[in-house]
Amino acid sequence: MAASDARQFLNDVEKKVWTAADTPGPYLGAEKVEDDCVPFAEKMEGLIRELSHSTSRVRKRKQQTHQRFRRVTPVFQHLVRSEVGNVRHH
């Protein structure tokens, strides 16, 4: 950032009247987001539902993965024992 740009930036910041709703977004290069007029509580409910759904999908996939590992573990254990036995006999 050039010195003149930095000075202009600081001047703009000093002139701005800050309120509790202001964010540093414009000064960080973030685009302004249009208000969709959906109340915060409604947005939160939707986000919580989405998170809950995602969490349950993850839990289900984790259970499926554990079940599959339990099924294949005895097969791998048998193969390892067989290979160890073959190595000892050579």
Question: What does this molecule look like?
Answer:
With 90 residues, this protein is mostly helical. The chain has a domain at 37-90. The chain has three helices and no strands. The termini are far apart.
Write a compact overview of the structure shown.
By secondary structure, the protein is an all-alpha fold. The chain is built from three helices and no strands.
Write the SSE topology.
Layout: H1 3-15, H2 25-28, H3 40-89
Q: Work out the radius of gyration.
A: 30 Å
**Shape verdict:** elongated
Q: Could you tell me the mean pLDDT? A: 82
Low-confidence stretches: none
- The count of DSSP E runs of length 2 or more, i.e. the number of strands, is 0
Order of helices and strands: HHH
**What distance separates the N and C termini?**
72 Å
Share of residues in strands: under 5%
Structural class by helix and strand composition: mainly alpha
Task: Enumerate how many helices there are, as a single number.
Answer: 3
Protein traits:
90 residues; mainly alpha
